[in-house]
Each structure stands twice: as structure tokens, then as C-alpha cells.
Amino acid sequence: MKTQKKLIPPHLGNLLKIYYKKNRINKSGLARAMNRSRATVQDYEERKSLQCNVLWDICVAVEHNFFADLAAQLPQTYTTNVPEDTTQAQRIAQLEEENKILKTKVDTLLAVVGKG
Length: 116
Hints:
This protein has 6 helices and no strands.
């Protein structure tokens, strides 16, 4: 491990509070979905940190990945075990191949019409 400057962890309660406000999350409904009291859900907003299973339950209840939000705050140089998303690269390669085929067909049509 390399020694690096200390990263200050985000205040999870504030992260939740901002998300709830922006997305108009009803805390009573959230509490019911999580099978917890409204006071408990309210308390989460005041906490600096939360257990992973609590954050997981909130993610599931609101269908939002707060873990990804946290991960996005770490430096890009940090490693991860998440597989690289290659769908975009595959789609680009597929479209490039399709483009080559279409160019060939256009050239053929122009040659047949006599404009090539």
C-alpha cells in the first residue's frame, strides 16, 4: 500500500438528505418500505456513517445505487473488481462494420447508375 493523502469520507446522512429532497422521497413511505419507523429513517439523515446493510436496504427501497455514488467520490486510480463495461465499445464496432457495408453498397449503386 502506498501512503496517500487522507481522503475525507462523505457524510452519508447529507448524501441521503440531498437525494430525498431532490427526488421528493416520502420518508414515511420509505420507512414502511424498509420496515422501520419514520424516526429511524429520519435519524439516518443525521448520521455521518451507516452500516452497509442499512445503506443496502435504503438502496433497495428507493431503487438508487448509493454505493456507486460513494465510489464515484474515490480517485479514478483506485482499483476495483467491477468488470469493465464493453457494451459501448462493442456497439461502436458493430456500427463501424455496418457503415463499411453500407458504403460498399452505395459505391456499387453509384457504379450501376453510372455516377461512380
